[in-house]
Amino acid sequence: MSWLTIDPDHPFGIDSLAYGAITIKGGSGPSSPAVRIGDAVLPLHQVCGKLSPEHAQLFDCPNLDRLLAAGPDSWRAIRLAVTDWLTDERHRDIVEPALIDLAAVEVVLPFTVADYVDFYASENHASNVGRIFRKGAALLPPNWKNLTIGYHGRAGTVVVSGTPVVRPCGQRPAEPATDPVETEFAPTDRLDLEAEVGFVVGVGSELGRAVPLADFDQHVFGVVLLNDWSARDIQFWEYVPLGPFLGKSFATSISGWVTPLSALTHARVPPVPQDPAPLPYLSGSGVPGDDAARPDSPGSWNLDLRLEVHLNGQLISQPPFAGMYWTAAQMLAHLTVNGASLRTGDLYGSGTVSGPHPDELGCLLELTWNGATPLSLPDGTTRRFLHDGDEVVLTATAPGPGGSRIGLGEVRGVVAPARVSNQSPPP
Amino acid sequence: MSWLTIDPDHPFGIDSLAYGAITIKGGSGPSSPAVRIGDAVLPLHQVCGKLSPEHAQLFDCPNLDRLLAAGPDSWRAIRLAVTDWLTDERHRDIVEPALIDLAAVEVVLPFTVADYVDFYASENHASNVGRIFRKGAALLPPNWKNLTIGYHGRAGTVVVSGTPVVRPCGQRPAEPATDPVETEFAPTDRLDLEAEVGFVVGVGSELGRAVPLADFDQHVFGVVLLNDWSARDIQFWEYVPLGPFLGKSFATSISGWVTPLSALTHARVPPVPQDPAPLPYLSGSGVPGDDAARPDSPGSWNLDLRLEVHLNGQLISQPPFAGMYWTAAQMLAHLTVNGASLRTGDLYGSGTVSGPHPDELGCLLELTWNGATPLSLPDGTTRRFLHDGDEVVLTATAPGPGGSRIGLGEVRGVVAPARVSNQSPPP
To answer: Does B28 lie at the interface with A, CB-CB under 8 angstroms?
Structure first.
């Protein structure tokens, strides 16, 4: 128990200790690493210098980059130390004055995003996409159960929770359809959200060497929530043959707080059974020297994260992460199996998290069946896709110790109107 | 004329002045920015400190990142200064002792790669891909002439010329084909090169704002040669529906020397006529305030770069860049039209450069028609795809002043054998 008074149901209690980077609102100083505790944040550098000086240099910087690169031994030691500071009454005199009210800080991008990859790991989501767009064909692409499909997104437009998202402009086929296709240029009118979980790589890997399933937690530091904003009209005109590009690259929002994997040990659940069994590098089975089969190996667990999607304050969906077909460790093993190296700050998203039920779908494309059945909101409005001014908030919780629940950092974004410039026709 | 003795036909004469980053072979010091002149390199920091101190801080660093970020006015001023140092006899006493023989240095990655995007801008290449894989269907995807198709690649595996490329392992359908598809895991046996031109972004842009055609040279600093290594078997099994991923992400090689755009003014040629005319943001036509129509605007020119592909020292192809359907300015305008921001160090490739003639094709996929007609080399061997130990070298030249030719930095890579690990089956 912390000497700090925190509601036992608080999502950011002593068992969470998510990390982020903050500035003081209205201040002009640089950002600095901090840990979130209750409704306060604890900047790490100064307190660490006094109480755990051996780690202080990891926090003498604007964000979490050094902490991420430091590796699992340091991650464990620092989490233990921070827990000690906040629970041992003897440290209170030093720690309490350093706490800052959450309302007084601004969260900034918590780490420098190196490469950003997005996967497509929910069978419910991928099947719904098949039902919507490939009527009469197989629900899933033929490779879907053999490999965890992914692609690279734009790292430079990953933004922190709270950043407004400007409605993008782009090409789409004009109505009526012609052959050859005539296109028009306009702001997207199919702006969508995608509720995802993102994984943050701390420790890089060597070019030419695959990272096995069992090494997942030697490389991945923690988890963020991620909104993979998507302009469906732009995306569907451009994505064949080389994949999504401008339909996604305008913005990807992540939570400002990164929940370390070590806060999620109580969230481990068995993965979804996979049939057919994937190749050994994705299953760990029968591969000499691969210890993916040991019970605590990352190859053997999924995470029971329960997401919530809020639109203008109204809960519209509760996607369950535990039902994802491919696990985070499988995504990492696949990403690197060709020898592609990892760097500190690599980020990969799970793809839209959708459950089997209508109130568990992770994007408006599914919730409105590509706009065919508008979503009715409690406030009396309806949505096919997002309107200007709409605010999307993703939150999530995970099981903590003793039946408690841990909160993940929220990701929040408001849709700003398209910018009409000389690039787009007059309004 | 330089006071340095340089063969007038030397590809790296006074009109080239490509920039890179070097270390001293066998030394242990950090890398530093340099300019290439003839068969020598001139480290920039110290000489700049003596002769142009106002720019010296741009070179007090390991690579070209600060120069790139400094913008067009600085780029012009520094090129003028370096030209002056190397041509005015009065500076010889200071400059000559600083020169280092090219053979004594190692080139390193010239800049920090931010995001890497690859386009698909050669109509000859895209049509050949259609002929090979989509027999009976339209040669080009329906969107090909409306937009310059592109996708994000892996920035973290962009490597400098000279870096060995480990043959990647991955999934492919097993023979005979079954339904559902059974896959096998193996080193690729369809390893290919792709001869491309890469464009290096110096000055970033604001999130939410498109970069018009006419602003191309306010953002792009220069040009590299680029080999987009591709594992065709991995690529073709994975790339539907979200695009190339592991078939490309294992390595992308770029030249160590970056040729500034200002060295290529004599290489400007009119772009290929486009029919149908693309939307105004890609054509500049009829858009108030867009000066893409002025004769010297980047919206009005392509670049006459002549590439050469060498395999184990043997010339196998001479792809002409001037025939690319989409120009570099169009690629940049498209990349940003949705508001995606640019960062210093963003790199984008043109896609495989292929001409209309059989000896102008930019990849083995085309040169051997997907392996169906092996390429006979002068040394008596044949190739369907690359063998272990094969060395691929891409070079290029461009018109310089007075009928001269300027060389671009070469990109060189040797194929290293696959690493058999617990990820792959026993050999």
So the answer is: no
